[in-house]
Amino acid sequence: MSQSNEAEYVLRTVEERGIKFIRLWFTDVLGTLKSFAITPAELEGAFAEGMGFDGSSIEGYSRIEESDMVARPDPSTFQIIPWSSEAGVARMFCDIYQPDGTPFDGDPRYVLRRQLQRAAEMGFTFYVGPELEYFYFRSSDGTDFLDGGGYFDLTPLDVATDYRRRTVEYLEAMGIPVEYVHHEVAPSQHEIDLRYADALTMADNVMTYRLTVKEAAQEFGVYATFMPKPVEGVNGSGMHTHQSLFRDDRNAFFEAADACHLSKVGKAYIAGILRHAREMTLVTNQWVNSYKRLVPGFEAPVYICWARRNRSALVRVPMYKPGKEAATRIEFRSPDPACNPYLAFAVMLAAGLKGIEEGYELAPEASDNIYEMSEDERRAAGIASLPEDLFEAIQVAEESELLRGALGDHVFEYLIRNKREEWDAYKSYVTPYELRRYLPVL
Question: Is there a single domain that holds both residue 252 and residue 293?
């Protein structure tokens, strides 16, 4: 359906369904969902010319002296919002433009579009399937668990079954298909996996998913969080991201004759992810708290290697359906669900395409449990580590040509500046740990 036909469909649906407001959604550079509402009377003009707003108030957008921005709704993203607090309201995602009609470099959706265009010029379509984990707590004031359940539990211990069911109903009402729903490893931790889609659709879906999880939780009087590591001593929340490249309707990662069923393209893509993993970490794990999850012993990957069955590896090649072409994919396990999905998918794709363009060689598969190896053994095997904290991630990222190229100067420089400010605020904070450890003895 052409964009003009999609716009006609939206206008007709708004009238037929008695929609009172249309929320225009977009994100700031850090991945926070932003929104303003228009009435049906303004909708036709929004499609034709966009809606102006003040970009100086949005994180990572514009300075005061160049603040005028234009949001143009994407009619293909039109959905009626199903939760009760927004009755009679629909939403569309927007692309952000300068007043002169040029795409705005600070729009995360545009950053991803640029990389998808680059992939298209190489003959590829990029598909992703993220697995977002999250916690339910009694409120946002603390970390009181709702249950004592564990991985895949279906017992009275898992009291959140109804919360997940409501969330899935809302997602599917908005045209977002769900593949798996289950309790995760930690108490009160859950996972809803979205069926794979092209990366731009999926980034929109991730933003919708995070809001939907929180809205459904609020209806039940509890709090849902995508904070990467809210509780010491239990697993943090990840966003394992399955990804593949297709040429037309053929999976470019599949090679029937290969022992791992991986093509030369698939191997070079993995090699690109591994080589640039340290640089990408500032985007895929962007908060001080992200690095409390990336520690040995809690399933989150720390060491840069790949494997088929080894879940301690950073990149895994799932073996659920060996030899099945459509199912051949890679799983990048370090991202967390508090990232900006537009930027995260963009940098993953940029790294993989770089591997393909440059013909990177894939290192041998890691077969042992890397966590049980000594530091010397890992060094001898050529296995490096992800950054240990936000400060190291900033240092690595600011030297990265790949990251600057993928994000563009505007987003790259803002992100580095913002994350330095976050680290400076964090490093001067006196933590409860320091008070417990030092105050009684010093």
Answer: yes
pLDDT tens-digit profile of 376-395?
777 777 788 899 999 999 99
Phi/psi for 16 (5° steps) reads: -65, -35
- DSSP output for 140-169: TT---BS----TT--STT-TTHHHHHHHHH
What is the DSSP code (8-state) at residue 305?
-
Q: What is the largest CA-CA distance in the chain?
A: 72
Residues 156, 30 share a domain: no
**What pLDDT, on the 0 to 100 scale, is given for residue 111?**
97
Model confidence at 87, pLDDT cuts 50, 70, 90, reads confident
Query: In a 3-state reduction of DSSP, which class is residue 224?
Result: strand
CATH code assigned at 88 = 3.10.20.70
State the Cα angle at 429 between 427 and 432, rounded to 5°.
120
- 143: Cα within 13 Å, side-chain hemisphere: 15
Q: Do 50 and 189 fall into the same domain?
A: no
Separation of alpha carbons 153 and 161, rounded Å? 10
pLDDT digit string, tens, across residues 39-75: 999 999 999 989 988 776 666 565 544 577 899 999 9
